Amino acid sequence: MAASGSGGNRADNGYGSQQPRRRKGPGALATAYLVIYNVVMTAGWLVIAVGLVRAYLAKGSYHSLYYSIEKPLKFFQTGALLEEYLLIAKYLPGIVPSSVVLTAFQVMSRVFLTWAVTHSVKEVQTEDSVLLFVMAWTITEIIRYSFYTFSLLNHLPYLIKWAR
Fold this sequence. Notes:
By secondary structure, the chain is mainly alpha-helical. The chain is built from five helices and no strands.
């Protein structure tokens, strides 16, 4: 006769018959989409970084570099709205553990600064502050989208993990 007070059989190791809950990850199609999206966004922000460096080397000054990256900046910063929209769809089923509210504030503040301030107020476009926030965004986004891409591929380099 088996000991009835042992709490279960040997196969369940005393934890009962329930398996530990694992976080549900994205399926193959969602993973493919997310990898493509993150690679495209990484490449876009790299284009902006290269544009800034090329314009600086050509002009020899950091003043008015906004004009050299205006179109890709608007495109890729506005492209983050797609991420926000899809985050809501991805967040609800629990695929991405990001806060929809915090991400919405971040994305909308950047889109607002890009379009409502920098695009609309021509005097702002020549200010040094534009270069500062564009450089901060560029560095941040290259690291962030690279981190997401490599994480999805289960091959996260230490340098990117450290930078993130």
